[in-house]
Amino acid sequence: MPRVLVTGGAGYIGSHCVRALVKAEYDVSILDDLSNGHEEFVPKGVKLFKVDICNPVDVDAVFSEKQFDAVMHFAGRLEAELSMEKPEEFFYVNCVGGFNLLEAMRRHGVKKIIFSSSAAVYGEPKEIPIKENAELKPINNYGTTKLIFEQMLEMYRKSYGFSYVALRYFNAAGADPEGGIGEAHNPETHLIPNILKAAKESSEFHLFGTDYPTKDGTCVRDYIHVCDLADAHLLALKYLGDGGSFGKETGASGAVAEIFNLGNGAGYSNREVIDAVKRVTNKNFSVIEKPRREGDPPVLIADSSKAARILDWKQKFSKIEQMVETAWRFETSK
Ligand SMILES: NC(=O)c1ccc[n+]([C@@H]2O[C@H](COP(=O)([O-])OP(=O)(O)OC[C@H]3O[C@@H](n4cnc5c(N)ncnc54)[C@H](O)[C@@H]3O)[C@@H](O)[C@H]2O)c1
């Protein structure tokens, strides 16, 4: 079976993809420094290279030790607000670390890569739902580093014949119903785990902004179940392997390059998510209304029809209850 290196494979989304790859009988290895990953998420039999992607010598050594057919690149920093306080940390891991990875791949002749990009590359789009050809105008440094890496991929396609798929996820949510892995960032900046924490600890949840021009005044976001994301990665891998007949203009090298949004297409308001948590957990907790935070657009919803059309991607867990229920199961098993 094809040999896949998963960077950041001990993290939230990476571990779900690793599990899906193992189930599909790929030969899987992980590169992760465990700075925000969890060793217990690494399945038995999967080799973990405990390596900092920012160390070019160590990254190269991974490729010397083992041959790979493709890379899935999840490793990175993702706390959008923090990226405004400490841009150097985000540039270092997401861009310099990404560069180290691409260079090791180039030196060792590995030319297929799937990249975890983000809806953050769009910033505050003018049109909803957001299509892949919307203007790219990040409003935080996190989104900028994601866009820079997408541009690096395009350079490596043009110059070295790399094939890539960049998947722009919206908000990943939920956990594998089989248990054992889930969302556990430190710090946790994402909505659903923070509401679940309030439910678990009967503490307060701070709701930022209740006067947006939306149906109930709170922000609307697009949530996508992490297992559906994992499915999309396997389909993207197949797409790269199959030569991607739908790929955009490929140049003489025959390299494939494609970008897909991955979202639910529905959009749930913050209040709807809070209500779903209350229903699923049967717990009550206080919701403290706070003023808007800077840089929170009212509505972000994906148009993922391209992934459905080209990759034949179908969601299995599109309801907010399914995301909250599986996330709650993980939260209460910790
Ligand atoms: N979670 C989301 O909703 C979301 C949305 C859009 C895009 N993404 C992207 O998906 C990817 C995975 O996100 P996640 O939520 O699973 O995050 P995560 O923090 O759970 O996983 C990231 C992994 O990368 C590892 N890592 C970080 N710095 C590293 C370094 N210097 N060297 C080696 N490993 C390193 C961490 O230890 C962790 O295991 C990220 O690139 C993120 O930008 C996530």
Overview of this structure, please?
The chain has helices at residues 12-23, 56-65, 80-85, 87-107, 141-160, 191-201, 226-241, 270-281, 305-311, 320-333, and strands at 3-7, 27-31, 47-49, 70-73, 112-118, 163-169, 171-173, 204-208, 220-221, 223-225, 257-262, 268-269, 286-290, 299-300. It is of the alpha/beta class and 334 residues long. The protein folds into 2 domains: 3-173 and 224-262, Rossmann fold; 191-221 and 265-333, UDP-galactose 4-epimerase, domain 1. Strands 3-2-1-4-5-6-11 form a 7-stranded parallel β-sheet, with helices on both faces. Strands 12-9-14 form a 3-stranded mixed β-sheet. The model is unreliable at 246-252 (pLDDT under 50). The structure holds nicotinamide-adenine-dinucleotide (NAD). Residues 8, 10-14, 32-37, 52-54, 74-76, 78, 93, 97, 116, 118, 169, 171-172, 185 line the site of nicotinamide-adenine-dinucleotide (NAD).
Helicity level, as a percent range? 25-40%
- Small molecules (ligands, ions, cofactors) in the structure: nicotinamide-adenine-dinucleotide
Tell me the number of helical segments per DSSP (H or I, 4 or more residues long).
Answer: 10
The total number of structural domains is 2
Structure characteristics:
334 residues, alpha/beta, Rossmann fold, UDP-galactose 4-epimerase, domain 1, 2 domains, 7-stranded parallel β-sheet, 3-stranded mixed β-sheet, binds nicotinamide-adenine-dinucleotide
